[in-house]
């Protein structure tokens, strides 16, 4: 009896209560028992399910044919983000005939533009405690449960991440410690690892870039981190494996309705859809239509009823990516109180450092653009926490993006202006089911709640939810040492093998089989798309099997190159388009259009524009007299005829004189970065503007600046060539 009472208390306060009741040894045994029972339940649930497409996924054409030819689905999900894909997976594993349509690509919206954290929300717990808010407390508890589940069902795509909270005032140490310990307590048996306190010395040892002045110590706690776009894709592909018909680039034109013969009321019975790529339209009949369109929630609700009130209040969150040397490999940083009261995360991700986010009201758009003000705000906050020895430069921003968070108001609430802190599930008079709000971490429980509501309201014949513990695409067969087999069996580079294992899990072998022979002694297979990233050409071919239809799909969501470094992505694009064009039989016109669309995406949505605008025709030259003299001297080593400008020919001649060989196309690219008026040459003023921007930190890693400096140093070491050495002359 006492055991049952203790379990009741655990449901509210977490594992700490159990520890108090039974002591540590009993708690450990209890946790093992609970985990064992949960895994047995998961295994039993998976054993009951049939996997029609375990060996090979249907092609997109086959999926579209199934959409057109199926007489009626039980469930049609509109929206291919995390929540929509989650709804499709939940529905199909309940033995419901399921379809999903997405007008762009899977995870093309908010779900690929997150902070990459799987977390319960430390700040929500703080509010719950300070305001005695039980709803917020339960929201955190649910998220922590989902965090544990997500880390278990996709171990290749996710992992626990320690996050440091630096403390600069003595009184804050016990305050933050108590809050973080409560976070552990609420997680209960699903606590990833226990939080701990660090001395100033130990904190600086683990995070040497941290500002030392006034630092008194730090607290480290654990949350989860994942590859968000790949996780979203894994959910959608898993749904397809279990028999759901999923189709990207398929938009809803309008909803189909039928009249109830008894009441005369109109009921939603499907949707008119259009294949965005071919323009063909067709009807998809369904007993239930679920609106899971994130920021576009109201657009679909108005298709149902033009008079319905808007419930979505979109908010833009900007993130930036800077080089990996700004943070340790396996330690994040949390700034709990920025200058304007927001929270900033500073996290290692894919060997880079990600920083964000902002929270600004915005308009709904399919193509959000990161603003320069938001980028500079994040950089200022980062500077506040890093040592003065670390110069945080604007030019170090390798990529930036904006994601629209779909905050919602509850349509059933009397106060329609108040933001709902959690998600809402609503069903219209005509039967349209809407799931809106929420967070990435809780996508699965949101989907479960949505399907429960739909089944009950629309009288669907369905089994119970089976997605707790249901392994996602790639999880089966993955182990932490899988990459070693890839190196041994296929002759892949170690870094490439680790990347494939952590991206595709057990499916990494299928990607490796598509990798091309390099013709080198080592690696044997696996030609890289760009030298500094482990993405290989074989991934482009595999991306097509994963329903990639455009070059943007490959650089943004099948690989994450566009999110990590816009210049590297831009360099990889021609080869990506070439591979896709050959495989998909694209015309030359289509290949040109794909290249231009992808460049436009990088320029506007991934921060290339903000990066390139750091050097413009109107850029101020902020150099002292000695610097101007030094840089003019460097310029004239290339401009030997004193023309006032240099071309690729001038640079090529100097490089050849020091035995450096760069192909002409690469040289054109290097000069084009600095050629502001795009006339095929770099004038002296353009060069001085470049060096001024480098000095101010607005531009970093300029290939031309580094190339000319290196060439000058080599020439100066050689000294003047004598007549004797030159072989004489007349």
UniProtKB/TrEMBL annotation:
It holds the Pfam family DAO. Coiled coil: none annotated. It comes from the Eukaryota. The keyword Transit peptide applies. Its cofactor is FAD. One of its GO terms (cellular component) is mitochondrion. It catalyses: a quinone + sn-glycerol 3-phosphate = dihydroxyacetone phosphate + a quinol. It is an enzyme of class 1 (oxidoreductase). Calcium-responsive mitochondrial glycerol-3-phosphate dehydrogenase which seems to be a key component of the pancreatic beta-cell glucose-sensing device. This is Glycerol-3-phosphate dehydrogenase, mitochondrial.
